Amino acid sequence: KQWYQRRVRGAGPKYKMISRKVLQRSHELILKNTKVRTKDIVPELSLHLLDKSCPWYHQTEVPELEYDPFWSVFWPGGQVLSKFVLDNTNVVRNKNVLDIGCGCG
Question: Angle 42-47-19 (CA atoms, 0-180°, nearest 5)?
Answer without folding.
Answer: 145
